[in-house]
Amino acid sequence: MMPDLNSLVRLKGSQIKPAAEMLARAFQDDPLFGYFFPDASERKGKLPYIFKFLIRYGVCYGEVCATSPNLEGVAVWLPSEKADMALWRVIRSGGLSLLFKLGIKSILRQMSATDYMFSIRKRHTPFRHWFLQSIGVDPMFQGKGYASTLLKTMFARTDKEHLPCYLETQSEKNVSIYQHYGFKVVEEVTIPGTEISHWAMLRERTS
Length: 207
Known about the structure:
The chain has one domain (5-162): Gcn5-related N-acetyltransferase (GNAT) (Aminopeptidase). 48% of the residues lie in helices and 19% in strands. The chain is built from 9 helices and 7 strands. Strands 1-2-3-4-5-7-6 form a 7-stranded mixed sheet, sandwiched between helices. Helix 1 (16-26) packs across helix 3 (40-61). The longest helix has 22 residues, at 40-61. The radius of gyration is 16 Å and the shape is globular.
């Protein structure tokens, strides 16, 4: 029997904060966030704000699922038509508060990098697709199959819809993991103004 989204937990408003804190732990050593916040203690304090916004955006416009109410792993998926963060969507999702919580220097770094990554995604996905905006597993639960559950469950839906999936990663070790699940590298670049490698990956739609 194929898995479906009913086997996961769709996040509710009350779960956004703890889910954001979990993703912050999972991404504490991520190269991109290390660029946004070079100081580790500052990064630890500010990442929850970013993920709180991203999760809330996903709850409003996409699918945000967890492996269980314990939030061992969380994935944020956006349909392509909602993946472009228009200003009014950002406002509705509480994005303006980030200006005060993250600082203008960090915001400018993020805007430059995300605009560039957005241009890559638009070039490779001029069609309907699902965008895996974020996926993370709490460090204490990594290696136990939670990420696999999150991915395979959503793939059951995207395969049924005959839609491709797109993701981005700045971690070389993640590339082979995603390749195992059918993603192919469509572009590998260095983000301008940084030393960060960026892989754009696409899982083609089923026939």
